DNA sequence: CCGGATCGTCGAACCGGTTCGCACTCTCAA
DNA sequence: TTGAGAGTGCGAACCGGTTCGACGATCCGG
């Protein structure tokens, strides 16, 4: 493999001159520049990433920490990952993907060893164990998901409160007075998945303010349990005319459940979910939903992270906490109660 | 950040001694070793990955190239990725994830710059453009998917021929004499997705040998087109009593299609798919299937790759082409035709 | 005609590890 | 008494880039 020394020799200049000719950081005569570029082509020279990282203390790699927990829905995560990966590449960065179960150890490993210039954390918990490590790291960090303490990191998340309100308001406007909400499993909440109760509390509050009845329940993250959960909810609340789904697995399972009960949407039941458009297409879901915009969030996180890495915003400049406003995508699964 | 020089100073030894004490590559007195380890703890020393890569020409990183094409089904890919990622970690390697559309350029970038010690290629096409580049690279490569030319790389894939035969035999044994097969979109084949016709041809051959009629068709990769495709197939072949699905999107869309037609499984139609168990659970699919074992394939690819990287098998030792035998998972969606 | 700025290039140092060769100290057997 | 050999540690070189300071040449204005 050719080194910059080989390039320099072929071009008949010193190593430093070759380096400057390629980086453009000092004035170089056009003749020399031409000879260097020629040599690069001739030798097929590509700089050695390790050597460059050592010299510049920049790796042009961003660490992406994604946890695939038993009780969360894997395909939903993929969307965030792709948003992050594609955006990073647009900015010249590669992605080091970490799916290790022990996120804290992994995070320490890749930051301390300087494998990455920055970190993106996915599915962040209320009190995330990885956060103290990230704050102590030399590299900047961006989160997708809202923790209790946002100091020292940039945070991006869907406005789950607004999402909850939006769903309730929408059904209220259509005339529904009793509805049910199926959230993620309760132990996701216990583990610190704050987005679950952020949406739920806002929905409950909005329902209360309008004199609606809202039955808040939790659903499993897998089949066949989640199917049973849905049936149980519908059995328990025969008067409910609307169903809010903040649980991807439940949304995916709902068509067959309704089929089994002989119910049709929106005639027998109005349904509104909270998931991305991509998700809806993938899973053939015919329900209106509050768009969760995972690709947009991943994109925002990387953009801000790159700004920090490249020093466009100073280390001590205030960190941002930005919420994406949810939008309701109408797929015709809601109507007035009959 | 502490360097090995700091460790050496604190321990009162030379840098080389500190290095040997940590690597264990030379005999070191227990006293010195203790002092070095002490210093490491005290300073929180972690070796700099770039420096180590430069010195050893080993990065302990594996490149994972995954293409997310419009006409393929993204969540299915995730399973391969996780199999690869987790296995790599078990062997001490991290994953550099590349999702760039231009796979050839990306591959050249990460191999030439020596960012990775080896490469795993996903969704390999019959005549994959990335293959010549991989062969020319200094690093070994492992594929998941079967190309026309397997020289210079280790190849792992599902035995799609066997899968096709298995599906046909299973339905034949139950008494079916006319069945339909829905494959991936035709342009996946045109692009070189050989697994589509490998399964299809074997299925056709098996059907012919048994005097069965098999209607081979292609289906889209997305809703709502794939739903229309399924309806068209069922309309066109009212005599068909069995349906073979080699198309994840079609499998995911089938429940609602059958619901729409008022058909029930296996009473009105026997259905058998080709997808992973994980996929079936995620998408709540109640159909028997030929298990495609993506995690196992990812795992096998990484294991072999690591063996090559670490020189356990020589550069010139013959490369392997290994097929995983499909297994039929019975979920009760097939029966004798009525 | 001289002095200072500007341009273009080079040598050397540095980033932070690993590894080779050598030297010193002991021990033990001839 | 001496020499071989094992056990330990050190210094220096090397991996392949980047960057700083210096230096010669050219150009300009006074």
* Helix-strand string of chain A: HHHHEHEHEHEEHEHHEHEHEHEHEE
Task: Name the largest protein-protein interface in this structure.
Answer: A-B, 55 and 55 residues
Structural class of chain A: alpha/beta
Terminal-residue CA separation of chain A:
74 Å
> Radius of gyration of chain A, Cα only, in angstroms?
25 Å
Unreliable sequence segments of chain A: none
Strand content of chain A: 15-25%
Morphology of chain A: elongated
Oligomeric category: homodimer
Average residue-wise pLDDT of chain A: 94
Largest sheet strand order of chain A: 2-1-3-4-5-11
What profile does the largest beta sheet of chain A have?
6 strands, parallel
Helix count of chain A equals: 14
Give the proportion of residues in helices of chain A. 40-55%
Q: Got a strand count of chain A?
A: 12
Walkthrough of the structure:
Chain A has helices at residues 4-11, 15-23, 30-43, 49-56, 74-90, 103-112, 130-136, 160-173, 186-191, 194-209, 225-236, 248-261, 277-282, 294-309; strands at residues 61-65, 94-98, 118-121, 141-144, 154-158, 178-183, 213-218, 242-245, 270-274, 288-291, 321-324, 327-329. Chain A is an alpha/beta fold. In chain A, the strands form two sheets. Chain A has a six-stranded parallel beta sheet with strand order 2-1-3-4-5-11, sandwiched between helices. In chain A, strand 8, helix 12 and strand 9 form a beta-alpha-beta unit. In chain A, helix 8 runs parallel beside helix 10 and helix 11 (225-236) packs across helix 12. The longest helix of chain A is centred in the N-terminal third of the chain and has 17 residues, at 74-90. Chain A is elongated and about 85 Å long. The termini of chain A are far apart. The relative contact order of chain A is 0.13. At the A-B interface, helix 4, helix 5, strand 2, helix 6 and helix 12 of A face helix 4, helix 5, strand 2, helix 6 and helix 12 of B. Strand 2 (94-98) of chain A pairs antiparallel with strand 2 (94-98) of chain B. Chain A binds a DNA duplex (30 and 30 nucleotides) through helix 2 and helix 4.
